[in-house]
């Protein structure tokens, strides 16, 4: 009888331990939440991309275009940003990699059209017009700037575009046979 009583007490003790220990373990070890985990991971990726974008802006403002390009490319690997794309294109333009800048500008134009973002569309067009102007392709540059002039814009921008069109027309008449 004593053995049975010891056995039952031991069994009750073991059951109590099993009931208590898992509860305490779950209190210590956090439960895995896949939604929260994915959200935290996405937030981390976004913050890293935004950090690279901001660093690219700082380097671009210091005219360190080569390192700014690296930062913008890192940023664009995990974050779609028309502004990062535009700044990357501008950096290629500034270091006179016009072919790459042209391809980037066309890609940015397609993205701006898809997103229906007319401001970025115009910004990419201005950059593309500048690329054509710098490479001596005045006719294409003129077509781009005349297309830009069809959009509504503030007075200062209108004057800038009209001045560009006048300069390009002067170059075409000067260099034409």
Which SSEs are present, and which pair or pack?
Elements: H1 2-28, H2 34-61, H3 65-78, H4 82-94, H5 98-114, H6 118-134, H7 138-148, H8 155-175
Helix pairs in contact: 2-3, 3-4, 4-5, 4-6, 5-6, 6-7, 7-8
What descriptors fit this protein?
177 residues; mainly alpha; Serine Threonine Protein Phosphatase 5, Tetratricopeptide repeat; 8 helices; elongated
* Radius of gyration based on Cα positions: 31 Å
Find the structural class using helix and strand composition: mainly alpha
Largest sheet: none
- Tell me the CATH topology: Serine Threonine Protein Phosphatase 5, Tetratricopeptide repeat
**What's the architecture in CATH terms?**
Alpha Horseshoe
What series of H and E elements makes up the topology?
HHHHHHHH
Helix content: over 70%
CATH superfamily: Tetratricopeptide repeat domain
Shape: elongated
What do the pLDDT scores average to? 81
Give me the number of helical elements: 8
Low-confidence stretches: 22-26
Instruction: Report strand %.
Output: under 5%
Q: Cα distance, first to last residue? A: 121 Å
Q: Total number of β-strand segments? A: 0
